[in-house]
Amino acid sequence: EADIYQTPRYLVIGTGKKITLECSQTMGHDKMYWYQQDPGMELHLIHYSYGVNSTEKGDLSSESTVSRIRTEHFPLTLESARPSHTSQYLCASSEWTVGIQYFGAGTRLSVL
Amino acid sequence: ELKVEQNPLFLSMQEGKNYTIYCNYSTTSDRLYWYRQDPGKSLESLFVLLSNGAVKQEGRLMASLDTKARLSTLHITAAVHDLSATYFCAVDSSGGSNYKLTFGKGTLLTVNP
Lengths: 112, 113
Prior knowledge:
The complex is a heterodimer of chains A (112) and B (113). Chain A has no helices and 11 strands. Chain A has 112 residues and is mainly β. Chain A starts with a strand and ends with a strand. The model of chain A has no long low-confidence stretch (mean pLDDT 92). Chain B is an all-beta fold and 113 residues long. Chain B has strands at residues 4-7, 10-14, 19-25, 32-37, 43-49, 55-58, 61-66, 71-76, 85-92, 101-103, 107-112. The mean pLDDT of chain B is 92. Chains A and B meet through strand 5, strand 9 and strand 10 of A and strand 5, strand 9 and strand 10 of B.
């Protein structure tokens, strides 16, 4: 059983607000990922990290930013939320042997 | 740029029937993953296939990989309602141990009584 936690699960905010989506894992995995998924659609990688102080942008351009100061923590921040940011955000971490990614429960974000 | 294509995207089948979901990818890779997602939930790992000819089975699901054809299949045997979910394949495009995955669009499977 993977231990990866995302908070909040649901968030409704107004345009222009700054938000941070939290993601933590207790498995000691070096690699962590953020995906964006619209309902019924595929996952798009928006950020990833191979370890502390390492962050890279993913395949889908995103206005969000991430940080990785501790192995277990990989928060995602939107400085000024817009309705186009409405989506589900999934965090994952990867074990080192064969690369299986374990996913958190996700944050459903609605920007009004 | 790696492209991953699944078909069909929608599959409605009766309980007890067999069917196959296909996953094609466009560039060389020797690691392919299958995940399941229930409505409103997150993704759960089903299989990881690591070499040409790899076959994995769990219950009524069997996955295989042909790296030469760049094709993976997920075969469903004698479907039951509990298998209703969206199934994603994902391919590692990074090489080495970076494990950067590109996902297909997913196949929404509905199993009817």
